[in-house]
Amino acid sequence: MEISSGVRVLTLAETFTIARGSTDSDEVVWAEIAHGDHVGRGEGAPDDRYGESVEAARRFIDSSGETLGDDPLALEVIEGRLRARGGSVVGCCAVECALHDLAGKLIGQPTWRLLGLADRTPETSYTIGIDSIEGTADRARRASEAGYRRLKVKLGGEHDLERLEAIRAVCDLPLRVDANEGWDAAEARELLPALVGLGVELIEQPFPAGEREAFRELRARPCAWRTQRARSGSSSCSAA
Question: Is residue 116 predicted with pLDDT exceeding 50?
Answer without folding.
Answer: yes
